[in-house]
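Whiteboard transcription, Tuesday session. T.W. wrote the C-alpha cells on the left side:
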C-alpha cells in the first residue's frame, strides 16, 4: 500500500524510495537537531495542508495545536516520567480534544472568517500559556523536558532522530491514508462544491469538523515531538507566526499535494538555519522574498508545478493514452493560491 504513495507507476515508487532514503540519510548530511526540526515541521505542514488543500479551510490557529501539544507532552514527560512516544501521543490527543470545540464553532464559517476565528482561539491559548506561569513557565517556557525511553540514553540527537522519525512517518502515512480514503474524497468534493455535497446528503459541517480534528491531531504529534527534541517548550510554539510559517511552507511546496508541505518545510527550516548560522539577522526578509517569487512563478508551488510538468511530459510521450492504472486514482488538483476564498 505504501509504495503507491505518490503514483502507481514505477516513477512514483522510485520517488517514494528516494524520499525514504533521504529521510534516513538526513542526519548524516546536516546537523541532526536540524534534521529533526525538518521532520517535525514537515508533519506540521502536512497537517495544515490536510485542512487547506483538501478541505479548503485556511487556518491561522494551528499553533494552538502544535504548541498546546508541546506543553502537554513536556508536562507528561517532566511530571509523569512517561516514555517520549507516550508523552507525544498524549499531547496529540490533547490537541485533538481542544480542536473539537474550536472546530465546532469555526467550521460554520469559511474563507477569511474561518481564518480569523481560528486565529482568535489560538491567541486565547497563547494568553493562557503566558499567564499560567506555575504550569507553563510563562515567558521562561517549560524547561528541562527529558527524553525518556525505558532507561535508554537519548541525549545524542543522532540517536533521537531515528527514534522519533517513525512517529513522523506514521503521521505522514495517516495523512496519506485519510486523503486517499472515501472520507478524503468527500472532503475534496465539499471543498470544490459544498452546496452540491450538501444536496447529495453529506453532512458538510461534520465532515469539516472531523477533518479539522484529524489535522489538529497530526499537528499535535509534530509539536509534541518538537518539544521533546528540544527539551523545551516556549510561547513561540503557540504564537500566531508559527501558524503562518506552516501555511507558508504549504504554499511554497504546493497546496493539496501533501508532499509539497514536506518540501516546503525542508527548504524553510534549512534556509533559516543557514542564515542564523551565518549571523544574518533579518531572516524574514529573505524567506518572505523567496515566498513571493515562488508564489508568482510557481502558482501551484514547487511540488505541484513539478507534478504537472511530469504529467504533461508523460502525456506528450504517450499521446494515445497509457493503460488505466486501477491501483491509484488521479491526483487531487491543488487549488490556485491566488484564487479568492
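and on the right, the sequence the group agreed on:
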Amino acid at each position: 500500500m505504501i509504495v503507491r504513495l505518490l503514483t502507481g507507476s514505477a516513477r512514483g515508487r522510485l520517488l517514494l524510495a528516494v524520499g525514504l532514503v533521504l529521510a534516513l540519510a538526513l542526519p548524516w548530511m546536516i546537523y541532526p537537531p536540524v534534521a529533526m526540526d525538518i521532520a517535525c515541521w514537515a508533519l506540521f505542514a502536512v497537517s495544515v495542508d490536510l485542512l487547506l488543500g483538501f478541505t479548503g479551510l485556511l487556518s491561522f490557529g494551528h499553533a494552538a495545536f502544535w504548541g498546546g501539544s508541546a506543553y502537554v507532552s513536556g508536562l507528561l514527560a517532566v511530571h509523569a516520567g512517561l516514555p517520549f512516544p507516550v508523552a507525544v501521543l498524549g499531547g496529540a490527543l490533547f490537541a485533538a480534544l481542544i480542536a473539537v470545540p474550536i472546530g465546532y464553532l469555526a467550521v460554520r464559517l469559511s474563507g477569511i472568517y474561518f481564518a480569523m476565528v481560528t486565529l482568535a482561539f489560538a491567541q486565547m491559548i497563547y494568553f493562557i500559556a503566558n499567564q499560567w506561569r506555575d504550569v507553563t513557565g510563562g515567558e521562561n517556557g517549560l524547561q528541562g523536558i527529558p527524553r525518556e525511553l525505558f532507561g535508554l540514553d537519548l541525549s545524542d540527537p543522532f540517536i533521537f532522530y531515528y527514534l522519533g522519525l517513525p512517529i513522523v512517518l506514521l503521521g505522514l502515512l495517516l495523512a496519506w491514508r485519510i486523503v486517499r480514503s472515501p472520507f478524503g474524497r468527500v472532503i475534496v468534493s465539499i471543498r470544490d462544491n459544498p452546496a452540491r455535497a450538501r444536496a447529495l446528503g453529506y453532512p458538510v459541517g461534520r465532515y469539516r469538523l472531523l477533518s479539522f480534528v484529524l489535522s489538529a491531531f497530526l499537528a499535535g504529534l509534530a509539536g509534541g515531538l518538537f518539544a521533546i527534541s528540544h527539551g523545551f517548550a516556549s510561547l513561540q510554539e503557540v504564537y500566531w507566526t508559527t501558524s503562518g510559517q506552516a501555511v507558508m511552507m504549504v504554499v511554497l511546496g504546493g497546496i493539496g499535494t501533501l508532499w509539497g508541505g514536506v518540501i516546503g518545510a525542508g527548504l524553510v527550516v534549512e534556509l533559516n538555519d543557514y542564515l542564523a548560522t551565518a549571523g544574518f539577522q533579518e531572516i524574514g526578509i529573505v524567506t518572505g522574498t523567496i515566498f513571493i517569487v515562488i508564489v508568482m512563478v510557481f502558482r501551484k508551488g514547487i511540488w505541484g508545478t513539478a507534478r504537472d510538468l511530469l504529467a504533461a511530459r508523460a502525456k506528450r510521450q504517450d499521446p494515445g493514452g497509457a493503460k488505466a492504472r486501477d491501483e491509484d486514482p488521479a491526483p487531487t488538483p491543488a487549488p490556485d493560491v491566488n484564487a479568492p476564498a
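Someone added at the bottom: Residues 310 and 316 are 10 Å apart (CA to CA).
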